[in-house]
Amino acid sequence: MDKNTIIGFILILAVILGFSYLNRPSKEQLAAQQRYLDSMEIVRRQQQETQAAQTALLQQQTQETTASATTPDSVIQNQLHEQYSSFAVAAQGTEESVTLSNNLMELTLSNKGGRISSVRLKNYTDYKNLPLCLFDASESSFEMIFITPNNRVLTTNDFYFEPIATDSMQLTMRLHAGDDRYMDFIYSLHPNDYMVNFDISMHNLESELSPLMHGLNIQWKQKLRQQEQGRTYEDNYAYLMYKFMADDVEHLNPRKDDIFETSNKLKWIGYKDQFFSAALIADNYFESTKLESRYLKNDADYLKEYYSSTTLPFQIAQTNDVKLHFYFGPNDYALLKGYDKTFFNGQNLELEKLVPLGWWVFRAVNKYIIIPIFDWLTSGNMGLGLAIFLLTLIIRIVLFPLTYKSLMSSAKMRALKPQIEAITAKYPGQDNAITRQQKTMEFYRQMGVSPMAGCLPMLLQMPFLIALFMFFPSAIQLRHESFLWANDLSTYDAIIHWNFDIPLISGFMGNHISIFCLLMSLVTILNTKFTMDQQNTGQEQMPGMKWMMYLMPVMMFFFLNSYPAGLNYYYLISTLITVAQTIGFRYFLNEKALLVKLEANKGKMKTKKKSGFMARLEEAQRQQQALLRERQKQQQKRR
């Protein structure tokens, strides 16, 4: 092994050691992770013991029902106290439900575990036109785990809480521990809002909870219902999201089972569907979190199953309540953005990122241009069909200077078509391909025309195109809004359905044909034909390009067939506007006068210094031509 190799290995080792040192967890992260692992170890150790004790208790209760009245009660109470300590007074009861509601939603709370067992949104329905329920008792669970001084692991789902109603929008669920000792879950709604305050208050429980308990472990599970007609498309927009305290919002993979664990602090955890979300928000932060998303591909009623295990910082000696918040509501950008100025002023909550608007460039276009215009158009109860039409028209007017440059570049190419055909005829065949290309580029330079001049304006329009592609599927304003034959602009407008899968096709376009998508594709094909008929020479040199231009609209039909009708309607209107602009431009532009102007510039361009790009391009062409000549000489020698 030589000296250089040894130095290389030493440097690699130094980089690895340095990277490990710089990325080591902090003392706080290590302590939080250790507390989490300790709690989970106690839970795992006690799980079988708890289950066995509950089974024995049930058997004991069954056996003692035929015995005397005093003996079974004393036996049961002793067993309950052994298992649950002072909380044994809440270990028996009958499950009951209590309702909280405002004008936007209705919550059902169960006294078993003191949890929210179901949520119904009053102003929305699902794709079957039934009242929209985010989840019910059989589809969700929410429990809090705590530890007694004798290291018994207890969970709130083992106990029956006492409901104490303040009014129709506030309820306290109280877990008794005897002798004026209790734990309160306080739920509070607000008028005209989807936010729910959830406060946890401890009263005289210092002797009932372990002094070694430094956090309250929360375990939250929910199965995500299918709420929209297009399941495949809804799947893509349903994922578990989470917000770091000092960082961005992330999400788990929506297309497969995924698990994420972190010791970093989180601000909120969100269970997101295409248009609705359930989010748990900490007034302070979560730590030592494990998140899981399970993809229910073959389940007819559910899309995903989400699970979260996280810890709230907690000391039994503290007197302040632990404060959390639930959000149960629509993924409405303006509504979610507004929480940064109301409930969570100054906390940079970023709940609006539950609405996917694309990468930061496209999100900025949506945030500062598309959404304000769309909100303005729909603020006056304007029909969604007309609003989309006007939005498309406004965007195309704003982008018209770029479109004009692209059309003008095409017009110049058409005006020079006879001269280009003459060059092609003068240097025919494959052997003259490089010379023909070189002469063509030299001619364009003399005339002051760049074949690439029309491409840059088109590229500059791409951020708007992609931003709108992200906006329409996320706009809840389109949900269940009809226009023409489309009953719901937020999903596909099928004219034909079939009940069997077509190999390689159904996976892309589904088992239906959407009208707006079909019309958009047909108009795009006609526009392509019109454009190709007017284009400059060069198609003879690249006949495959013509077929590619026709193939693209067909491919887009298969790709967009399951996308929302509102999106395809926008593409249809945008394409029709493109056709109108192209025809209008051809009608008003005098191409003969344009050719005269180009000819007048010819002399000026001869003396104009070549750009660096053109010089490099011509040099590359000369080198390629020299290489081709060398190859031809070698082939002639072999013969």
Summarize the structure.
With 639 residues, this protein is an alpha+beta fold.
Write the layout of secondary structure elements.
Blueprint: H1 3-22, H2 27-64, H3 70-84, E1 97-101, E2 105-110, E3 115-125, E4 131-135, E5 140-147, E6 153-155, E7 162-167, E8 170-176, E9 182-189, E10 195-203, E11 215-225, H4 231-236, E12 239-244, E13 249-251, E14 258-262, E15 266-272, E16 276-295, E17 302-313, E18 322-330, H5 333-338, H6 360-378, H7 384-398, H8 400-415, H9 417-426, H10 433-447, H11 455-474, E19 494-497, H12 506-509, E20 512-514, H13 515-534, H14 543-560, H15 565-588, H16 591-607, H17 612-638
What does this structure look like?
- The protein has 17 helices and 20 strands.
- By secondary structure, it is an alpha+beta fold.
- The chain has three domains: 47-89, no CATH class; 93-356, Beta-galactosidase, Chain A, domain 5, CATH 2.70.98; 365-607, no CATH class.
- A hairpin with a 3-residue loop joins strand 15 (266-272) and strand 16 (276-295).
- Helix 8 (400-415) runs antiparallel to helix 11 (455-474).
- The chain is elongated, with a radius of gyration of 34 Å.
- The two termini are 51 Å apart.
Key structural traits:
20 strands, 45% helix, 639 residues, Beta-galactosidase, Chain A, domain 5, elongated, alpha+beta, single chain, four-stranded antiparallel sheet, 3 domains, 14-stranded antiparallel sheet
Mean pLDDT: 81
Total of DSSP H or I helical runs spanning 4+ residues: 17
Main beta sheet: 14 strands, antiparallel
The percentage of residues in β strands lies in 15-25%
Specify the overall morphology: elongated
Please estimate the helix content: 40-55%
Assigned CATH architecture of the largest domain? Distorted Sandwich
